[in-house]
Write a structure and sequence with these properties.
Blueprint (H helix, E strand, L loop, with lengths): L12 H19 L11 H10 L5 E11 L5 E13 L2 E10 L7 E8 L2 E8 L4 E4 L27 E11 L2 E10 L7 E9 L5 E8 L4 E13 L2 E11 L5 E11 L10 H5 L2
Antiparallel strand pairs: 1-2, 1-13, 2-3, 3-4, 4-5, 5-6, 7-8, 8-9, 9-10, 10-11, 11-12, 12-13
């Protein structure tokens, strides 16, 4: 009868076990395949998982936007963000609540399907909204470090994707994905590099590279937690590497699956202030 290791009383047993374990580890290391030769996951698959990650059927967020100059000056804004997702379609409405110089300003994004998106900006002083043309999407959104292009989703098929490695951001293991936009639809970027959290597919860091190959902006998630079972970015920062300006977005509260109506996402609703 074979006696389990834990029942043996031989005084030499610990040394024998240790020698066996050490021998096993040496053989394992020698025979194990080199990690550098391991096959990376498919880039397009990773991009699709990021695109499809769970953000609820809809959400309402109360947030704070902090604009920080390189010299240390600070401006703080309050805003409300409403989002509704229906299959491949998504609608969102951003409304600024304070301070007085931006109060009532609204921004509507209507995405009928990936790659088919309309954007409208409402300015209370003009009492009307205007459509953001494709040529304007590289411009700054309300003087922040986010452009209009950054506020819409790009179809997975509109870029070429490849995984170039893996790295931990904070304590979150990530795949590093490089996405190169195709000519249609046009993009201000020559390449976008994403650190995507494994299993939950949240972009933890994004580097934006212009068409000259210069790294111009970095987006970073500073605080991530689960809210109603959904992984949620509670604080993010977008940094402009050219002038040192930063935009911080802090989630003050968020509620998912509230039952938002489609009528909340129309040009008429945008102008109703």
């Amino acid at each position: 009868m074979t006696i389990p290791f834990r029942q043996r009383q031989n005084a030499e047993e610990p040394y024998c076990c240790a020698a066996f374990i050490l021998w096993f580890l040496v053989i394992y290391v020698l025979l194990a395949p080199c990690p550098c030769g391991a096959q990376m996951p498919d880039g397009k698959d990773i991009a699709q998982r990021i695109f499809d990650r769970d953000v609820g059927r809809d959400s309402v967020t109360e947030a704070e936007m902090v604009l920080l100059s390189a010299g240390g000056s600070e401006r703080v804004r309050r805003l409300r963000v409403s989002v509704k997702t229906d299959g491949s379609a998504r609608k969102s409405l951003i409304r600024f609540l304070s301070p007085a110089d931006i109060e009532g300003t609204g921004f509507l994004v209507l995405e009928a399907k990936p790659g088919d998106t309309e954007q409208f900006l409402y300015l209370p002083a003009l009492k009307r909204s205007r459509r953001i043309a494709t040529a304007q999407k590289s411009q700054s959104f309300v003087n922040s470090d986010f452009s209009y292009e950054d506020l819409e989703r790009r179809a997975v098929e509109a870029s070429q994707h490849r995984v170039i490695g893996e790295e931990t951001v904070g304590d979150v293991p990530c795949w590093i994905l490089e996405s190169t936009p195709l000519e249609t639809p046009p993009s201000q970027y020559g390449m976008v590099r994403v650190w995507a959290a494994k299993e939950i597919w949240v972009p933890m860091r994004i580097q934006y590279v212009d068409k000259k190959g210069e790294h111009i902006k970095t987006y970073t998630v500073r605080n991530l937690k689960q809210v109603q079972g959904i992984w949620t970015e509670m604080e993010v920062v977008m940094e402009n590497l050219k002038d040192g300006h930063r935009t911080i977005l802090k989630t003050l509260s968020i509620n998912y699956n509230t039952g938002l109506d489609d009528n909340s996402f129309t040009v008429r609703a945008l102008e109703a202030w």
